[in-house]
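Listing S7. Sequence submitted for prediction.
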Amino acid sequence: MRLESAPLASIACLCCLGLSVTLSGCGKRDTVRHESFQSDTPFSAKVSGRGEDVCWSVKRALLTQGYILDRGGEGLIMTGTKDLQPDEETNISLRLQATCVDNRDGTSTVFASALRETSKMQTVAHSTTYGASIATISLPSGTDKALRVQRRETVQDPKFYRSFYALVQTYASEEATRKK
């Protein structure tokens, strides 16, 4: 390589790197472009009751439906996880995160968002590598079955959230009646 061509090679390399970074961002913008913020979504609902009672009702709703609560550092955000196994090859994990805000008018707003993760059993091949510093060889050594994530998505179904909010309202109403 001649001395003058070294800077040209560096510039060409930087141009290729810049182009690849630019092009890699193009595909990601499409997903964000279709995201629109709207006020009418299933991710929040107004519930009758004081904030303290409604937040307690959110916790009760999660626990009574078989969700295991995470022990997070933030007390206002509750996260529950529930696993389902519709068949021997599939596992569905639901993760519901909820928080509540006292509106200071006798109502509270509950915000909830659920993530559904579907995993399936797949065969995974293993190999063992043998060798020394001069040469190595990899040989198949067996297979195992393992759960692999197939799909991960935010639950969009309004019925799912309406049933959650209805249960929270039931428990909040019971709590208000009990305190009278």
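Caption to Listing S7: primary sequence and predicted structure tokens for the chain studied. Helices lie at 5-33, 51-64, 158-179. The longest strand covers residues 107-131.
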